[in-house]
């Protein structure tokens, strides 16, 4: 958690910057302790769409005393959705997307941290959060003390983001040839005509062979042009790309894919074993990195769904806490805690032994309908909320 240490009982002024992912415009904000500010449609954020309310969110800065040293305080920033349509927050640490809905007490607010992305209703109104220094100020209305300037902050990739330099200057619009987009915005945008596609170099040869345009093909865009999607891509090189799962089913959830387009695993043979092993090696590196930088007690499982929902070949790297608001139903749970989830080692062994990988669709999809069971003690639980509560206790046994 990106909390900054404060050392005074006076009021605090926290400087943050919201960076528009499309235009790269930077909007500096000064948040006075316990004094919420309202943001939404208008000239400040350059949001014209009426789908975004004028008062879409409130953003506020609070401090709490540290138990071990009451003279020092921890600072945090939160937002609350008050607009008609939902606000989204993509967490930099996990890639999880939180949906904030006005009027729902448990779902209308969220703490934000360095590198998080606030999405004002539509993907084109996405802003990265940059935290700066805090400063003590006098609480008199005529006080003219300015906050301390922002400093260079290096944010480790595993904690969300890349190294950036924030100097607290006025917003400057920098035009980019390749604005960052995510898969959702690509799918929702107007489909190009064949002539437009040819002009942009989006030939059919860059798609999964035989694939039709749609949700099941969305992973291919990250394999073809990973540099365009810096907010979604965790890692890439000439052979492999790793992205954050759009709807993570655990605290840490990544998809590891080959750069070349591979239509699932129906055409894989022994020749492709080195390819799968390269995905496995990259997945192990990611898991070890998280353990080293977050906690050595985190457990991971690496493997494939027996009946994948996406065409492009992809391996899941997922932590076994399954602590995520995106894990909502029996199908989600059973897809990672039954034999429907095929360990990468078993996957490779079947490929070596049989020269192919095949799982009976009817049989394995039937596993998704099984009753819920704790993946630790295997006791039966009736509902997902009850299951999540049980896991918290089961881990302590």
Structure description:
The chain is α+β, with helices and mostly antiparallel strands and 397 residues long. The chain has 8 helices and 17 strands. A 6-stranded antiparallel β-sheet has the order 3-2-11-10-7-8, with no helix packed on it. Strand 10 (117-119) and strand 11 form a beta hairpin. The longest helix has 21 residues, at 273-293. The chain is globular. The chain starts with a strand and ends with a helix. The model is unreliable at 1-9 and 136-213 (pLDDT under 50).
Write the layout of secondary structure elements.
Elements: E1 4-6, E2 11-20, E3 26-32, E4 37-39, E5 57-66, E6 69-81, E7 87-90, E8 97-100, E9 109-112, E10 117-119, E11 126-137, H1 183-188, H2 194-199, H3 220-224, E12 233-236, E13 240-244, E14 253-258, H4 273-293, E15 300-305, E16 315-319, H5 330-337, E17 341-343, H6 344-354, H7 361-367, H8 384-394
Antiparallel strand pairs: 1-6, 2-3, 2-11, 4-5, 5-6, 6-9, 7-8, 7-10, 10-11, 12-13, 13-14, 14-16, 15-16, 15-17
Helix pairs in contact: 4-6
